[in-house]
Amino acid sequence: MASRVLAQGDVCTRCGADVVPIVYGFPADDAFEQVEAGKIVLGGCVMNPLAPDFACPTKGCPGA
Ligand SMILES: [Zn+2]
Q1: CA 47 – ligand 1 centroid, Å
Q2: Among 5, 43, 47, 64, which residue has the fewest nearby CB atoms (within 10 Å)?
Q3: What is the pLDDT of residue 28?
Q4: pTM (2 decimals)?
Q5: Residue 20 pairs with which residues in a beta bridge?
Q6: Does residue 61 surpass a pLDDT of 70?
C-alpha cells in the first residue's frame, strides 16, 4: 500500500490511533513527557522539507 502524508484529524491506517504532531529539532523540557503521554512524536533534527507533520504515536507501529 502506498504511504501518504498524515494530517491532523487522521488516524493511523495500521492501528487506528489518532495521529499526533511530529516535533522536530531539539525537544523542549516537557517533550519527553508528551511523548510518553502519546501527544507528540519526536522527529529528530532532520531538515527535510518533505518530512511529515504528523505520525502515529504508537511505539512499534509499522506505520509510525
Ligand atoms: Zn499506528
Answers
A1: 24
A2: 47
A3: 86
A4: 0.78
A5: 55
A6: yes
Neighbouring C-alpha atoms within 13 Å toward the C-beta of 51: 15
Report CA(59)–ligand 1 centroid distance (Å): 8
CA 48 to centroid of ligand 1, rounded, Å: 22
| pLDDT greater than 70 at residue 56 | yes
Which of these, 37, 11, 7, 1, lies nearest to 22 by C-alpha position?
7
Q: What are the tens digits of pLDDT across the range 1-45?
A: 455 789 999 999 999 999 999 999 888 899 999 999 999 999 988
Measured at the alpha carbon of residue 9, what is the angle toward residues 15 and 47, in degrees to the nearest 5? 85
